[in-house]
UniProtKB/TrEMBL annotation:
Lineage, opening ranks: Bacteria, Bacillati, Actinomycetota, Actinomycetes, Propionibacteriales
UniProt keyword Phosphoprotein, yes or no: no
UniProt protein name: Enoyl-CoA hydratase/isomerase family protein
Pfam families xref list: ECH_1
CDD domains named among the record's database cross-references: crotonase-like
Keyword terms: Isomerase, Peroxisome
Location in the cell: Peroxisome
Superkingdom per UniProt: Bacteria
Length: 261
């Protein structure tokens, strides 16, 4: 199992559980998480979903070894939902989503905070949006959601620089509500989730709908733009250099790329 699911007091906790891979999303985990969100959306006994990770990482983002296979071998099987299906499930999720970042979060492990109604972060946790370091484009509508959450310059730095963002900086930027000692993270996140879960589900859904409805079209348009840019860049010279460097355990050298790349 790549995803652990548990229910308590109308809160469904989803725990990403590939600790040996730092909870990186392969096709199996993308499918499992999307299915879990879809199921929670339809379950009348679930009011809130709390998402976290097992081990020392929240999520290292997309599994780069599998990403390299998908980029270079058209015969590699793809999942039912994949990355795009997970993003769609996040966009459409009608109930409160609480995210507890217990360790490092890269790629979707950072951009998923754009969909969090409440975000909490362990004090030692860090985030990175490594898109330029991988020679690709933003993802998960972060090109729209991050500027809306944290302002243009904070978003530009996060999405353009591929630099680490510490927990305190993430809180100052507005990516998370609260920073906690690691040993208090889940208790804090659960306490907030249970406050929400004690409220009428119909009211929670109505409030979230009124907050998100004005942004849904813009989010989908951003997602489509990102997907088109990502598809154009994936497998290109910069992306292949980044993936080869990762597989070989070295830093990528983008200075050797053709002009314009």
């Amino acid at each position: 199992m790549t995803l652990q699911v548990s229910d308590d007091r109308r809160v469904r906790t989803l725990t990403l559980d590939r600790p040996e891979a730092l909870n990186a999303f392969n096709e199996e985990l993308y499918d499992a998480t999307a299915d879990a969100l879809l199921a929670a959306a339809e379950d009348p006994g679930i009011a809130v979903v709390l998402l976290t990770g097992a081990g020392r990482a929240f999520s290292a983002g997309t599994d780069l070894l599998e990403m390299h296979q998908l980029a270079t071998d058209p015969d590699v099987p793809r999942g039912k939902h994949g990355f795009i299906g997970l993003v769609d499930a996040l966009v459409d999720f009608p109930k409160p989503l609480v995210v507890a970042v217990n360790g490092l979060g890269l790629g979707i492990g950072a951009t998923i905070l754009g969909f969090a109604d409440l975000g909490f972060m362990a004090a030692e946790a860090r985030l990175k949006c490594p898109f330029t370091a991988l020679g690709v484009a933003p993802e998960a509508a972060s090109s729209y959601l991050f500027p809306a959450l944290v302002g243009r310059q904070h978003a530009a730095w996060a999405l353009l620089s591929s630099e680490w963002i510490g927990a305190e900086e993430a809180q100052r930027m507005g990516l998370v509500k609260e920073v906690c000692p690691a040993e208090e993270l889940m208790a804090t996140a659960r306490r907030h989730a249970e406050v929400l879960a004690a409220k009428p589900i119909s009211s929670l859904v109505a409030v979230k709908h009124t907050m998100t409805a004005p942004h849904r079209a813009a989010i989908r348009e951003a997602r489509d733009r990102e997907n088109a840019a990502f598809a154009e860049l994936m497998g290109g010279p910069a992306n292949l250099e980044a993936l080869a460097a990762f597989a070989e355990g070295r830093e990528p050298d983008f200075t050797r790329l053709p002009p314009g790349w």
